[in-house]
């Protein structure tokens, strides 16, 4: 174990006492038994918030530890026991406390608590006792996905690689190397596909039952309420899908086709297309600005030092055990930012392999960390931190752009131009993927019948992929590989959480456009919006950041024109 891993283990340590319900039960009982008047509510809320933070921190640390050790049965078992023995009791206690709060006569929430109060009221109406135990089952089913993918290996020639390491090979400028890596990844994915099919076969009836228990006609309706989507409708999402197909897919095809022409490719094959790292028009190797996680930390530190002193200091504080960046066996392959509310500390998990894409992803995840830091410092109540999902990706995606002018210590002028171009291209090619992911889930949870099979899922994904990625040529290839594209992290782990990425990318482009004219003002608006946490509505949060909450066709057309101009 490296020194960094040792520090991470210390940060993620959870005592045995913190994993038992009897540790928390007396304090929940005291809150429930307290005489509660309108005047006493603020102090009572502070006590509940502090307790909620302790429980939340325990489960966040256990969950993250499990993701770092997908091959350790003891670690997995400890997390699962918490989900089975503590989480259901917490949910029941939280519901009882919410009902107690809502019953207080003459109480009017303060302006900075009014939205949270309304959300608590809506969540209480959605609560069903039957969904408490079913929720434990749901979490266990989702965790199976994490274990399976975290232990996935790729056999490439005589080597056994992690998925991120194999994906790095797939970005080679040598087309033969790319194809070999793509085929190896595809073989690994297809070997795992039946087990992931089985996980989804278990998840679907569980999710439908969660909705039925809540007296709702579909899991989409259930998630719409759970995610508090009050500012837009499913019809707005469908309009977004059509707008992307009409305004973005042609531009994406133009970009990808232009790269293929520059490289003399007869067609864009699956191994020629990675939306996270498009091919270089000059046929050059992908930028590889670092070798180790420690080097990446130093790169980021210098960038933040140039961007803003406050943010730089926040990142510096994370370098003592709140970053786990290296890719290794037994570690979940996704990247994310976790949050420990008692300490107001974010934690970033990644799987870096030395690419410029890793640099971008680190800025993305640390943007989330800044959101946690700033909202946590400004908002004492734990429920007022972070923000609704429609805003929560803006801090991360905007940071990808705001750091662009602070990387001259990493790249020379030509390399920085390449990095910047890939960032702009990446927004364009991401939007069709986001629309496809969202459209798939609308179909799966609101249109497909209860007798839907994984073969039906495959067929629908193929239909959507041909719609949103018509520029990738699969002639002569096994389309069973293409059909399993739905076996993606968010579909299993965070259903219906994806269109938010598209909304926030559009907003991030708007923030960057403002920063081109007023860098200091754009940065201050960015930080001010993060400090608001969850105390104002989604449209108000967007306005605080200097942009509009819009994802209609006209707005998308305007932003695509701006990006095309910047790329030119």
TrEMBL record:
InterPro entries: Pept_M3A_M3B, Pept_M3A_M3B_dom. Gene3D superfamilies: 1.10.1370.30. The keyword Nucleus does not apply. Keywords: Hydrolase, Metal-binding, Metalloprotease, Protease, Zinc. Binds 1 zinc ion. One of its GO terms (molecular function) is metalloendopeptidase activity. The keyword Zinc applies. Its cofactor is Zn(2+). GO terms for biological process: peptide metabolic process; proteolysis. Pfam families: Peptidase_M3. Residues 171-559 form the Peptidase M3A/M3B catalytic domain. Belongs to the peptidase M3 family. This is Oligoendopeptidase F. It comes from Deinococcus hopiensis KR-140.
